[in-house]
Amino acid sequence: MIVSATVHVFSVCWTVMLKNSLMSQKPESFTCDSTSDPAPVASTSSSACVPGVAGLGFTLLLSLVVGCSPRDRALGQGWIDVTATLDPATTPVYQGDAPMKFDFLKDMRKGDKLTLSVYSLGAHSGTHIDAPMHFVAAGAAIDQVALDPLIGAARVIDIPDSVQAIDAAELNRHDWKGAKRVLFRTRSTLRGWMDSSLFHRDFAYVAPDAAQLLADAGVVLVGVDYISAEQFGAPAPRTHQILLGRGIPIVEGLDLRPVQAGDYDLIVLPIKVRGHEGAPARAILRKRTHQEPA
Predict the structure, then answer these.
(1) What is the mean pLDDT of the chain?
(2) Nearest CA-CA partner of 145 in 278, 293, 240
(3) 71 pLDDT band (50/70/90 cuts)?
(4) Which of 234, 221, 213 is nearest to 164 (CA)?
(5) Domain limits of the chain?
(6) Which of 29, 71, 133, 274 could be joined to 139 by an S-S link, Cβ 3.0–4.6 Å?
(7) Could you tell me the pTM of the whole model?
(8) Which among 194, 177, 196 is positioned nearest to 185, based on CA atoms?
(9) DSSP β-ladder status, 250-252 and 221-224
(10) What dihedral angle (degrees, nearest 10) is formed by the CA atoms of 113, 21, 145, 224?
């Protein structure tokens, strides 16, 4: 699927806009009514934490496609951008997927009265979310994926550079049990592969037996730092089928270079495209310093 959108491009980086948005929030907009918890965790009760999350989510969606350099990733209030910047010159594209192309229809730098752009890219470009529909015939489309799995506590797990297959044995070498959202920081991060246009086939992947453990343990979201969670050339997409078959969204293409292993708050929101199997997303993390509901 090719996603094509025409948008106005402003001269100020959207990530700076996100930083300003966060910095301008009153402290109470990031806290629940009766606690000292500063994290904007999704809630269905009253209005706790809603203003901060709503405003931040809106800005995240606006800032999806245009990113800033790694040094600009500290977003205020401790938030860290872990989204891969979309750039045809530096963003890897999975073998056989649609290429990225960004053009200016009008450009003030060339004398036009405004700047206007057109984007063409695959649904699984850069940092993106796979919805169940990707490998489950009757699975939910990306616009039907619930927000709860996309917002909340997440654990970043460091996988050694020497490991390509994150199988059950490798998974159990790490402290993952009890985490609701698990993000794998692998050789792809260590080698900067989400910032390299060359597609690498030997990326680290989640093996089916590890996917089964995660699903059976009640994990609600799985994230990886390259553009697929599945082994390249796998005879069958079992990892996707296991996770998506249980309604667990998969975040692929995270750029986890700015963070280390540990517990974080996660917000990752996809473009809301009706009736399709995935979409690019903006992802941010904030270090958790105290225990709270996931």
Answers:
(1) 83
(2) 278
(3) very low
(4) 234
(5) 85-90+123-287
(6) 133
(7) 0.76
(8) 194
(9) parallel
(10) 100
- Does the active-site annotation cover 134? yes
Instruction: Answer whether 125's CB lies under 8 Å from 280's CB.
Output: yes
CB-based contact 220:180 (threshold 8 Å): yes
- CA distances in angstroms from 212 to 58, 209, 277, listed in the order given: 34, 5, 21
Can you tell me which residue has the tokens 């192309």? 101
What type of residue is 219? V
d(CA 149, CA 5): 27
Mean pLDDT of 16-38: 39
Q: How confident is the model at residue 73 (pLDDT cuts 50, 70, 90)?
A: low
| Three-state DSSP string of the chain | CEEEEEEECCCCCHHHHHHHHHHHCCHHHHCCCCCCCCCCCCCCCCCCCHHHHHHHHHHHHHCCCCCCCHHHCECCCCEEECECCCCCCCCCCCCCCCCCEEEEEECHHHCCCCCEEEEEEECCCCCEEECHHHCCCCCCCHHHCCCHHHEEEEEEEECCCCCCEECHHHHCCCCCCCCCEEEEECHHHHCCHHHCCCCCCCCCEECHHHHHHHHHCCCCEEEECCCCCCCCCCCCCHHHHHHHHCCCCEEECECCCCCCCEEEEEEEEECCCCCCCEEEEEEEEEECCCCCCC
Q: Using one digit for the tens of pLDDT, what is the confidence trace for 164-212?
A: 999 999 999 999 999 999 999 999 999 999 999 999 999 999 999 999 9
The set of residues, in sequence order, having a beta carbon less than 8 Å from that of 103 and lying 6+ positions away, is 117, 118
Q: Which residue, chain included where needed, has tokens 């049990």?
A: 177
Give me the CATH topology for the region 85-90+123-287.
Glucose Oxidase; domain 1 (3.50.30)
Residue of 8, 124, 128, 134 marked catalytic: 134
Structure tokens at 174: 């790490």
* Cα–Cα distance measured from residue 182 to residue 219, given in angstroms and rounded to the nearest whole number: 7
Rg (CA), the chain: 19
